[in-house]
Amino acid sequence: MTFARVDFAASLLTNGKILMIGGYKKSAEVYDPFTGIWASTGSMSVVRYMFASTLLDNRKVFVSGGYDSTAELYDPSTEAWTSTGNMTMARCRHTSTSLNNGKVLVTGGTVDAIRCNGNWSTSAELYDLLTGTWTSTNSTNHLRHSHIAIAFRTGQILVTGGSFPTNAELYNLLTQVWTMTGAISYQISYHVACL
């Protein structure tokens, strides 16, 4: 890469390229697996680390938090970032999940974004891509950070792990209710999952 990065995010774009974002930096770059070349692209408005990133249905990349409550969108067609509405609180080590109704669900993390350590949260909120606004939704049953969230076609979102719980829970998009589901065999965090 052009720069060393830590606590960054990577997104697979619909054109087959990979967007590498942040990591105690504002900068971003794109990797082309067909040519093996890295190229700089537009920079974010703020330095981000331990933030959340997700690819949206409109092919843009949505990032939030990692230092403050801000959020912004990357458009691969213009290579530009656009600021959008702020979350209700600063977050780090949280998740963001693109939903099938044009919204993004953000869960947990820490609200002490200066140190990204302590003050873990159960709160969750929804970002509306059409209006650029945030609304609170029901909180998770357990404090979570460094966890993962996966959206199913059924409209449910599975949240697992984090540095404390060995349990998992499901969010129902229609009712906005969290319910506990089967326990994980052991405590996990900073993990991945695939559909």
From TrEMBL:
Task: Enumerate the InterPro entries for this protein.
Answer: Gal_Oxase/kelch_b-propeller, Gal_Oxidase_central_sf, Kelch-typ_b-propeller, Kelch_1
What highest taxon heads this organism's lineage? Eukaryota
The membrane-spanning stretches of this chain are none
Keywords of this entry? Kelch repeat, Repeat
- Pfam families per the record? Kelch_1
> Any idea what this protein is called?
Uncharacterized protein
List the source organism: Adineta ricciae
